[in-house]
Amino acid sequence: MRMIKIFEGAMGTRLQALGIADKPCPEYASVTHPEAVTEIHKQYAEAGADILESNTFGANPLKLSYFGLADETEKIITAGVKASRAALKPGMQIAGNIGPSGRLIAPLGDLGFEEACEAYARQIKALAAAGVDYILFETIIDIQEMRAGVLAAKAVSNLPIICQLTYDAQGRTVTGTDPRTAAAILEPMGISVIGMNCSLGPEQLLPLVKELGEATSLPISVQPNAGIPVLREGKTIFPLSPAEMAAWVPKLVEAGATILGGCCGTTTEHIRAIKEASQGLTFAKREALPQGVRLASRTKTVWLGEKHSTVLIGERINPSGRKAMAADIKNGDLTVVKREALNQVQAGAQVLDINMGVPGVDQKPLMKEVVETLSMLVAAPFSIDSTDPAVVEAGLRNFPGRALINSVSDKPGVKEQIFALAKKYGAAVLVLPLEEKGLPKTAEERLVIAKRLVAEGKAAGLSDSDFMLDPLVLTAASDGQAPRETLRTLQQYRKELGYPTTMGLSNVSFGLPGREDINTAFYLMALASGLDAPIINPCSEKIKTMTAASKVIRGTDSQGIEYSKNYVEKNIETSSAPTVTSGDVLAELCQAVMTGEKERAATLALAAFEQGYTAAEITANALVKGMHLVGEDFGAARTFLPQVMLAAEAMKTSFDALRTKIKAEDMPYAGKVILATVKGDIHDLGKNIVSALLSNSGFAVVDLGKDVDPETILAAVQKEKPEIVGLCALMTTTLGSMEETIKLLHKEGADAKIMVGGAVLTAEYAKEINADMYAADGVQAVRLAEKIVKENKNK
Amino acid sequence: MQKQNNIYRPILNYINRQETKRYAGLRKDQDFPEKLVDEACNTVMMLKEPQTVWAVYPYDFCNACVQASEEYHIPGQSLRKHLSGATQVIFLSATVGEMVEQAATNAFARGEYALGMLIDAAATTAVEQTADELERLLANKFAKLGFKMTFRFSPGYGDWDLSEQDKVAKLANAEAIGVTLTESLMLMPRKSITAVIGLCPDIIEETPSKGCNKCSKLDCSMRRDG
Predict the structure, then answer these.
(1) Which residues from A are below 8 Å from B201, CB to CB?
(2) For residue A580, what is the DSSP state?
(3) pLDDT tens, B144-161?
(4) Cβ neighbours of residue B43 closer than 8 Å, sequence gap 6 or more
(5) Are residues A489 and A594 in the same domain?
(6) Which end of chain B is more exposed for a tag (fewer CB within 10 A), N or C?
(7) Which of these, B25, B47, B48, lies nearest to B118 by C-alpha position?
(8) CB of A539 within 8 Å of any CB in chain B?
């Protein structure tokens, strides 16, 4: 029976009350007023605290540097621990308290990961030298900062580590980690206690403690604030009384808490009440964690194994055999890598394999950069794919999560390093049954090697929840029995070892035609033989469909609910295409323009031309007609601007198609328009919309761009002699520049009509600055332009 | 005390599709190719460079004065009212960089007008999401001290004139994330914002809630339904 332990309560607010918290920082009070610090500890000890927390929360060289005290880090820490020790009663312990560095780690902020590790290492060294019993990280808001702290602690001491993150009311840290994911990442790193403190009161923390309890076998520490504070007359007031706070103790313990304490707003009396409420309570019994392996990104946990749904590991971030990708990566361009990451995740990959095997490139910095970049982009955990331990470490160190190492084989000198890295960074490891003396042919041989590697991994400190197995996929074309042996290996693994399995499929079909079919067949048979997580191209339609279908068969998609959803969505997509088959090609073309079907419009325009209609007829009776109808719908708010733009695109493809058949001078010509966003204004979306609509209504548009000064516009008007000048301004600050342009055009006697538009313009203002017309939107701009041209003709 | 440079580059794992459609002017239940919306969101996902910067100043709400090294007296009624009761104010700037805008322009140049519009809308959504993430960080910092945060108020809202943009950008230290002003006081890159948030010790009056129904611009195309 293990008894609940109690931490001491708030220190900072107590020092504040004594007026010694800002000279210049609370931690420095240990140097200037050690007896006052000790007195606070004594009061907590007397109230029943089992573990004191040294007054070293902000005694980090990074934070102390704001006060010019970085050089005194060790002195402040030594004094802090000494002040705690002076209050120590028999049986009590001291936790060396460490808070956030105050800066965010790159790429979120400007603090380098290594810089953070160094600063923490210095703080931890001093705490260890001063004789604390635990290293306690608390109030941390980013998992990467916590990882830096844990790695530093492991590097410089053997003390047990307590990790407390701060969550918000939605149950996530500021940078998005939930309690389950925190457990998935931190527990395998070898910490001793996991928990939470600050920001919320016991009521709000209770569900989070429960969540954490379901995701970890470690002891859980919980230090709530005394409720959600309010600020009155310049003072922060925490509402919960000691009795109110203590009332939550049995519930917190039942949810899994094993060490309790208090954060902001808690006093000696709160700790006394919590201690009393915890008397006689013991560790609650927790459900064992599910079997399998979990991987995690900063924001998401993914379970793999027999008891879990099939997980697709995306294989496409791999430059081997992909020359263009390799060349881009070599040139430092990660666009393709980013796109592959996004596409695979959207196609259903839950884990991404990252291989940076580009010849002639130093893979270590590259792996670091790719891991950092992609972890800002997608929420999927990574599989770090390399045989070089240094490259593996570059990936693991910088990944704010728990990765899979792909892979370890029976290669002396390397396997030891890989196991050590898995242990250090809390990564899972994929066991590949290969040895130096040659390829093991049979399932039995492979099982022997896998068992040996697992045993060695365990000897290096790994546990059952850290291993995945690869059955080895060989090419069917070179050895007819190879695929069957792979399947047999999967079955043996399941029977003998039970760890989740993964494998790259596509090797099997190498050298054969119709590879996708072979791959798919192999995939399904492998699933039936015990494959849990294929390394695969998730964007393949066959793989997608087969994965969904196999989930129905295996019962992980109960009654095919998910499967059916896909089917329904697909049906809608195909049935939504309008089917006008009037036989009247112009009517059909008009319809295609209205619905924005680009390819169909182009085909129909050509068909109309083949049937003998002239370009003018096609334009007037189909294209412009369709556009006008869309414009009417727009005016009546039956349709919206993006649809109008789609119609314009369909017009464009139709014109483009006609242009291949008709001489330029025979193309319909409505008139000429010069467009510009005025000087000082850098918005061009609105002007671009107007330009698109005009040029696809038969106008020749001269687009001068954005931020165009009056003289340039005048020069263009004099040269091009357009019927209309369209000016655009989006901001109140650039209306003056529009007015100036109009004045100049009038002064120089330009006879083009001036049309103005833009978000802040009104008809009234347009009149005031002597514009001829005001267009509220792009559709109206086309109407007005057509009207002007018509009036000119009638003159 | 040494001055801190408060830069935060939040993680955006997705672009809100509903907001993107709203900014593009699409209404609910509109028959529109979802693939285009996806493509626009993906383009912005690829090219966005979310960055934020912020600074806190004491605020004297009786005199509507931000107590920075160079005092800033808040002109007009809207922002004064918004910040009534605040004792500190946070000036902030957020951006998603200039590559997203180039992508929208390029799409127009290729004749993919609807996509261009949607990329622009997705980029606007991304800036808002970026600022929302910063607000989560700020909430963690200030809520635990008992402060209530007002919603983000930007130059151009109410009668807080856009001409104040330079002062706001300076107070936010926007240059630290590469956000600068043109001569006509526009933010560069264009997909950037500046704003102020009030930190109120005790809400005497309910601060106006965020949302379209509180806004005076009734004919705005961005107005949320209902």
Answers:
(1) 230-234
(2) -
(3) 788 989 999 999 888 898
(4) B100, B103, B119, B122
(5) no
(6) C
(7) B25
(8) no
In this prediction, what percent of chain B has a pLDDT beyond 90? Answer: 67
Window 580-609 of A: residues touching B by CB (8 A cutoff) are 596
The beta-carbon neighbor of B111 closest among A65, A66, A652 is: A652
- Whether residues B114 and A645 touch (CB distance < 8 A) is answered with yes
Do A627 and A677 lie in one domain? The reply is: no
| Residue predicted with more confidence, A643 or A234 | A643
Measured between CB atoms, which of A648, A683, A732 is closest to B162?
Answer: A732
Q: Is residue A571 part of a domain?
A: no
Mean pLDDT of A483-507: 96
Q: What is the pTM assigned to this prediction?
A: 0.88
Instruction: List the domains of chain B with CATH numbers.
Output: 7-204 (3.40.109.40)
Same-domain pairing of A535 and A605: no
Q: ipTM score here?
A: 0.85
Predicted confidence (pLDDT) at residue B221 exceeds the cutoff of 70: no
Which CATH number do you get for residue A639?
1.10.1240.10
Residues A652 and A509 in one domain: no
**Which of A621, A636, A662 is a domain's end point?**
A662
Domain containing A52 — which CATH number? Answer: 3.20.20.330
Q: Which of A177, A197, A214 is the last residue of a domain?
A: A214
Q: Do the strands A220-223 and A230-232 form a parallel or antiparallel pair, or are they unpaired?
A: unpaired
Identify whether residues A184 and A71 lie together within a single domain: yes
Gap from B150 CA to chain A (nearest CA, Å)? 15
Contact A643 B1 (CB under 8 A): no
What 3 state SS string does A290-350 have?
CCCEEEECCCCEEEECCCCCCCCEEEEECCCCCHHHHHHHHCCCCHHHHHHHHHHHHCCCC
Q: Is the per-residue pLDDT at A87 higher than 90?
A: yes
Q: Does A776 touch chain B (CB under 8 A)?
A: no
Beta pairing, strands A93-98 & A134-140: parallel
Tokens representing residue B113 in the block = 């007008």
**Which residue among A66, A379, A596 sits closest to B13, beta carbon to beta carbon?**
A379
Within-domain flag for A385: yes
Which DSSP category does A727 fall into? E
Q: Domain of A612?
A: 585-662
Interface A–B counts its CB contacts (< 8 A) at 161
Does A657 have pLDDT greater than 70? yes
Q: Tell me: do A658 and A684 sit in the same domain.
A: no
A713 and A608: one domain? no
How many distinct structural domains can be found in chain A?
4
A609 shares its domain with A729: no
Q: Which of A240-244, A664-668, A770-774 has the lowest mean pLDDT?
A: A664-668
The CA angle B100-A176-A263, to the nearest 5 degrees, is: 140
B10/A649 Cβ within 8 A:
no
Instruction: Tell me, yes or no, whether A546 lies in a domain.
Output: no
Query: At CA A351, angle to CA A521 and CA A170, rounded to 5?
Result: 135
| A778 is a domain residue | yes
- From the CB of residue A638, how many other CB atoms can be counted at a distance below 10 Å? 11
